[in-house]
Design brief:
The chain is an alpha/beta fold. The protein is built from 6 helices and 7 strands, in the order ααββαββαβααββ. It has a 7-stranded mixed beta sheet with strand order 3-2-1-4-5-7-6. The protein is globular and about 45 Å long. The termini are far apart. Mean pLDDT is 95; it is low at 1-5.
Length: 210
């Protein structure tokens, strides 16, 4: 039997995100409450990490969690119990989802399209598995405005940030990727979150319908 090891950096990141749970809730609570208020009883989440979104799901929700980062698993399991969410954890990549065509009512993700290797392929998979009329709910940090001071900061810290946060790209144009994904309708809001994590202040959030 092959035992899959958990990289030390993944464990460190899990600790960081767990420690920041209350801060993340304080900064994002209004957006997340609005985004997640009408989700069905069964939800697919891509890259839930340690479970920052769990508190916004209805108690008793079944969460089909696609999370390839082993370092997050133990904390995700514990937090799902805290928030009375039924967790079905899958150690898989979002680029190839384990669901049948047109079988899912809702897919959610936050801070995921910045990290996956092929965000366009992830969105293609999301469209494939969603039922007609099904929705994809997202919250992502994105590239800063061109020519801005913040864009300069993102470029300076891009490589160390990507290493520390296991592939996170600070300057992805996720807005464009979503617009090219071919959803029947797409609503995107742009906002700057005044967090002390300066490079990730620019955000987009919204809903895409198949």
């Amino acid at each position: 039997m092959c035992v899959q090891k958990t990289p030390t950096l993944s464990i460190v990141n899990a600790f960081i995100f767990q420690t920041l749970q209350n801060y993340i809730h304080y900064k994002y609570r209004k957006i997340k409450r609005d985004l997640f208020e009408e989700l069905p009883d069964t939800v697919v989440e891509l890259g839930p990490g340690v479970g920052s979104n769990l508190r916004y799901f209805k108690p008793g929700t079944t969460l089909l969690a696609v999370e390839p980062n082993l370092g997050m698993h133990s904390r995700l399991k514990k937090n799902s119990e805290t928030y009375s969410v039924k967790l079905e954890l899958m150690n898989l990549s979002a680029e190839k989802l384990p669901f049948s065509d047109s079988s899912v009512d809702a897919v959610v993700c936050s801070w995921v399209l910045c990290t996956v290797e092929k965000p366009d392929q992830v969105l293609k998979e999301v469209k494939r598995v969603l039922k007609p009329g099904g929705k994809f709910v997202f919250l992502e940090h994105v590239a800063a405005e061109r020519g801005s001071f913040l864009e300069w900061i993102q470029k300076i810290v891009l490589k160390p940030w990507k290493w520390l946060f296991e592939g996170c790209h600070l300057n992805r144009d996720t807005n464009q990727t979503l617009n090219h994904a071919g959803f029947s309708s797409l609503t995107i809001e742009t906002i700057s979150i005044p967090t002390f994590f300066l490079p990730i202040r620019p955000h987009i959030y919204g809903t895409a319908i198949k």
